[in-house]
Structure formats: C-alpha cells, structure tokens
Queue: 4 jobs
Job 1
Amino acid sequence: MTDVWSERAQAYVESDAHREGADLDQLVTWAAGAATALDVATGGGHVARRLRDEGIQIVTCDPAPGMKPDVVCRAEDLPFAAASFDDVLCRTAAHHFPDVGAAVAEMARVAGRQVLISDTLYMGEDGEAAERLREGDERGRVRDPLAALDPADAVPAPAQASECAAPPGAPEATQPMAA
C-alpha cells in the first residue's frame, strides 16, 4: 500500500481539496495555543504547513515515504513517548487506516492536550464505489470509521464543528455524541 501512496504524493500536494477547506481552517483554529503538534498521515503536508504558519512546532508522519514525512510510520504504531505533543491532528486520512481504533488510541497516547481528527465519512455512492475499486475493496473492513470507536469515550464536538459543510450528496450530518 505504501508504494501506491508514494506514487500519488504530488497529486496530494497539488490538490485544491487537500490544500484548503473549512475543515482545515477549523483544525487550525482548534489547535490555537499549542506549542507542538503531530500531523498524522500528513499526505501533502497541508495541515503541517498551516500550523507552522501559526508558529506551532510540527512533526509529520506518514506510512508513505513519498509523502516526505519527518517520520515514516503507521498511525497505529506511532514511535513517540506518551504526551510528546500538545496536539495530534489527522485530516482526511483515518478512513485509510487498517485499524481506526488502534490509530486513535495511539494518537491519544502521544497527545498531551487534544486529538483533532477531520475525515470524510461519506462521499455519495459514486465516491464510495470508486474508493472500493481503488483500494481493492479493503475499505469494507470499516464502513464507518467511527464505528470502531467506543461511544462511551466520545467527547462532544464544539459548536463550531457545524460550520463545516458536508460534501454535496452526503446524508444529513448527525448531532455530536453526548459524553
């Protein structure tokens, strides 16, 4: 899998959908006050770039060497000590993780302050079919990445989260889970 993502690295750097967006702006807002951060599955490095612009010391990681991360590793196996970073962020990548629950647990372990995740859960039936074809139907292992998480551990999303619009054709957004 890593070689495929390395081959696509430049496309992620150049992608308008990855380079900007309300979700990226929101992550940057939520990370305000952090001195250090880890960008998990950095891809084109857009989260890292924006956080650096805000004066946050950032480390990037990705399993694909072609994405040119600071550290090559899977989200499920972060090679950092507990609470190594104030914030740990992951944008538009969790749906690719083989074990979302393990990845989130690792992110929580290395975060000293908060974990911020923004991801695409539904892109319409055409998008879903394309994802299954592209990934060899591996996505079927976790249809909804949030399903791998224990609802008892959920923290309500801040009110600002509703400002991020769902993509066209996506079902209505659900309310944040109560703690």
Job 2
Amino acid sequence: MPFQPASRFPPRPKIKLKQSSPTRVGRSLIGRLRVRLSSTAFAAALTVLGAGCRRTFEPLTPIQRGEVLYRSNCASCHGSDPRRPGVSGPAIAGSTPALLEARVLHRSYPSGYQPKRDTHLMQSMPWMAGKIGDLAAFLDSTSTGPRSVKAISDRLDSRE
C-alpha cells in the first residue's frame, strides 16, 4: 500500500468517557492490587535469583598469575608451550628468576650465562618489574611436566 499523507486519513472519532459505577470502581481496585502484587512478586523473584548469581572469585595463585603474564607477553615469540622453542624465542621453561629479571627488565644476561640463541630481538618489559616471581613460578611449573608425547612413550617403553 503506498504512503498516504495524513490529510487523507479520516478524523479520529471522539470517545466519551462513562462515569464508573460502584462495582466498576471495585473491579478496577482489585485489578490494580493484582498488578501491584504480581509486580512485587516479580521483583522478589528477581532479588532471589540475583542473589544466587553473586560469585566470589578466589585470588589467583602465583602460577596462575604467571601463566596470564606468559600468555599475554611472551607466547607470541616463545610459543604457547614454554617447553618448546617458539617462532623467534627459545624454550624458556624452568628459567631462573635471575635470568628472567635480566632478560625481561634489562635486555641482558646474568654473568656467566650462555644464551641459547645469538639474537637480540627481545625488548625490555619494565611493566613486569614486580611480576618476575609469578612468571618464574609458572615457568618452573611447566618444566616439571612431560616434555612431549614422545618423552611419555619413551618413559613407558623403558619400564617394559
């Protein structure tokens, strides 16, 4: 149907309001009470359901905080598994806090340390100054697990 301007519509009929009889007033009062009671019950139900949704979260352990740091700052170069070499960074599972502090904060190596690679691609990350312990805890926890599926199968074969 094409659009018709407002002038083509017939005028609205005027509605006359009737005076309410006493029974009609009583019915509307009951209707209003029902609406109020149902809205009150609905609000109470929402309150009860909302109270069940509140969760308290346990604080993260140092290993969990270190994993968050690793995944957000290190995994892009060192890979998702710190036990294996990444695209541009070596495997760093089990790295000592001294090595992590020197590399992450100062772009250097501890005295006497022989680097795994002869590149200097890694940039310093000063925002991690107070978090080296957490990162070290995560990397230490990953070094104790099995290094690969082949390592697991070799260990099982050696038992036979």
Job 3
Amino acid sequence: MGGFQVISGTLAGGQRLDKALAEASGLSRERVKALIGEGAVTVAGERLSHSSAKATEGAEFAIVVPPAAEAAAKAQEIPLNVVFEEPREAKFVVSPNAPVRQIWVSAMSRSYKLTWDPERSVFTLGGEALADLLGRLCNEFLTTSS
C-alpha cells in the first residue's frame, strides 16, 4: 500500500465513534476525526462520514493512515513582546494544532481559530495574518485597560 499503515481491530460499545476509535487505535481523537473526513475509516465494512454516532460493541474497524506529509508551514520570525505592567488578569495563549494546520489563539476571554493560507504562507483568520491578529489584540487590551 505504498507507505500506508492500516490499523484494525474491534470497538468497545456505548461511546462516540471518534472516542472508541481513538482508544482502540492509539490515535488521537482529532486525528481520527480528520481521517474520517478523508474517508479513511470503515466500521463494520461501511465507510464513516461522521464521528458522532455511537460505537457498537464488537464492531470491526479499519483505519488507513497515510504516510506523514512534509509540513508546508514554516516557522515565522515574529518579534512579540507582550508586557502588561498592571496586575490584571490577562491571558494570551497560542496553541498549534499541527495535524489539521490550525492555530488557536485565546485572548481576552475569546478564542480565534486560524488556518494555514498556502498562498501567503501564513496562518490567517478572515484574511488577517497571525502577527497582525496578535498585534491588534494586544493593542485592544492595552486600550481597554487604560
């Protein structure tokens, strides 16, 4: 199968398919969801199209895992110095989600999901690049905290 790995086995019942498949295969739940979306997962001989149905006890599954693709995303030189001198509750968290080429930013009680824009070679949200989003959020925080 040219570098593809097939993971197969039987499911424990009573839980969502994505959770049961993750536990049975050793893959993460997010990876299982992505593979379901790619049509690479079968349960009881049927190709899955969604992961929210309940697993049937003893159902046989197969997951075709493609070889890892080389990441198109490259590290970006982004100078970022965020200094809040006031003792105020403020959290800026940036979390990468490599399997699906996303970055989540949590800032000022809101979350933002950025996706990879291959044409610009940056993570974006509605056309706004990651560096610009972080700069804007920092400015908004500093403006509202004054």
Job 4
Amino acid sequence: MLSEETKKSDSVKELYHRWRNDLILFEKSCNKLFSLNLKALSNQNLAKTYNSFYDLYLNEYSLALLTDGFGFLMDGYFPELLSKILDGKKLSDITINLSAPMNLSFFEREKIDLYSIAQKFHLSSRNKFYTKEAFADYAQQYYWIKSNYEQKDILTKRDFVKKIREVLMDASLEDLLEKNYFKKIRKQKREIIKKFKLGKKERIAIKLIEITMYWQDKRKKANMIANYWLHTLNSEIARRTKVELSAIECLTPHEIINIFKNKKPLAEVDKRQKRFGIISIGGKILNIPYEKIEEVRKGLLMVNEGKDGVIHGTTASPGMVNGVVKIIQTIKEVSKIRKGEIIVCSMTRPELMPAVKKAKAIVTDEGGITCHAAIISRELKIPCIIGTKIATKILKDGDFVEVDANNGVIRVLEKSK
C-alpha cells in the first residue's frame, strides 16, 4: 500500500472507493432482508438468500482486510521513519499525535445520534427518557448494535433508556459536538509536519494511517451488521432443520447449504463447538484437525513469556495508571469488570464496549496503531497499550499492575492471591 501510494497518489483512496461499492451492495442486501419473511421462504429460496447475503458480505470483508496488514506494518515502520528525524524523547508523543484519527468512530457517532434523538423528541434527564417514536428512530439506525460474533441480542426499550441517560450525562459529548474538534487535530498535525520538516514519505504515511483508521471503523460496523443477519439466517435454518443453532454456527456456509440437500451435519461438529480453526495456504482454506489446533496456534503466536513481571507493547494512547486487572475475552465476562479497573483482552471487539467504558486503561494482545482499541482509547482519553502478544496469558484477574502507556510497558506490582 505504501509503495503504491508513493508511486501513484491516491491509489489507496481508489481501493477504498472500490470497497465502498462492495459495502453499498452489502447494505442493500441487509435492507432487502428487512422486507423478507424468512419463515415463508422455501428451503431452496432460503438457501439462495443465505448464499447471496454471504457472498456480498465476503466481498465487502475481504478487501477491507488490507487495513489489518497495513496497521501491523505501521507499528514498526512509522516510528522508525520518524526516528530518523526526531529524538527518542519526542518520538512517542509525536507518533501518537500524527496517527490520531480524523473521523468519529461509530461508537462516538452513536452518542451524537442519541443526543440528536433526545433533542428531537424532547427527552431529558429531568422528565421522560422514552417515547415509541424516539425508540423507533434509534432502532432503525442501530438495530444491530448489540449483535456480536457469539450471539444476536435484540435491542430493547430498557437498552435505549439506559443509553439516553448515559449520553445526557456524558461530559465528553461537548468535545464531540464542537464543530472545530477535528480542525484542531488537523492544525496540530500540520504544525508538527512544518516544525520538523517532514518529507513526502512521512506525509504519505500519515495520510494512509488516517484512511486506514476510518476504513477499519467502517468495516467493524459492517461486521456487526453482518453478525445480526447471519445469526438471524442461522436461527431460521436451525429452526426448520432441527439442528442446534450452536452446531449450525460451527459450520462453514458450504456445509450449512448441504443440510438442505439432506446431508447431516459433520460428525466432528461437537469438537468444533469446543475448538475450531481454519488456515489459508496457497489460496486454499483448510480446516485444522482438532488435535493440531493448539500446536498451530502457538506456532503462529510465537509467544515469549514476560520476564520479571514486565510486558511490552505499543502505545496507542498515552498515560500512566495503576489498577486491578480483569481479563475480558467474551461478552459473558463483561459484567465482571468494575469501574476503574484495567481491561486486558485479545482485542477490543465492539461487544466488549460496556466493559471498556468502565476501564481505567486498556491492554491488548493484538492490534496495531490503527486498530479499534487505538481509536477508542483516544476517544475515551485513557491509556492503552496494544500488541503485547502475551498479556492475557501472563496476567490474571486481580493482579495489581502499572500501565505505563507513555513507554509501552505493563509492570506487575502485586500478583493476585
């Protein structure tokens, strides 16, 4: 991506606009599903609907995966590029400032939309928080907001009232509503570029990081919408085939369609519900044998144990705090975190956001400077260290740690008993 952009200006924007076309087709497919009565479809038409939706989702998802690779590349390349111009003391702060997002995430956009709904329907903290019309307005835009990779949760009146209350009491909303919010960030970037006389390569890298962060956030939203509809389609398939939904969701699309051809689910589906892995080799997608999954996983991660209770990662949002660790990997674990604790997870998927909003700091195994955790931590203004590879393996619930996001280091001060 970087070399192409150097040769041809706006090549990445062209890729983004190609993806936008795929996204539009995917969104049209989602809108079409709203008008369908899935229960009334024949098995053949349900299979066609499933295939059509999945193909459009796959097209949208595949091209957007470029952003992941670029994010990981930038973790090393961008600081190294700047280090040739800046001294070590300024490097971390300037890297963070120059890689700041230039668009609101959908997480923050939802806050603004909720605030607009509250204004439109005269909802306030002093009287009512709910009307049918206000809820319908919100649900039309965010019906998918509670869906995740594990399950589809239906948006309720209670969810809406809770969100309205939170937004009306959210002090950070003033920054988001300020029209010059991103103009100030842009101005700060321009001042840094001018002061340190950053060249063409540095400016291109900054532009690509901005596009990538915006693109990744758009993709994340599309994933959540896709999760909603995949769970919906899978639920209908499970209902009429008498196969457990948990089993259906461990099958590939091809295997699901085979059920309609009177083929039984795979005998190994019970094992898949415990552990399941696939790998791409030479363009072919292969299932990893159950007994080999852990071996392959360890080989891919190449995990090294943290020495002397110190874990290293990449700074996504600066700051230093001490606090109690809570390992949060699934939506079922979200409720165990208390306000002011430190969330440690593989990555900050959207379904973990209720836990993230309570956290004092974020530590992840995965992710680059353009990842979801990097975007969200900056919006929440809390310290964040990403890409540790081992945090969830080394740290335990109850450990008392220091998160030094100024230097990308987590230190265990006291192990849990």
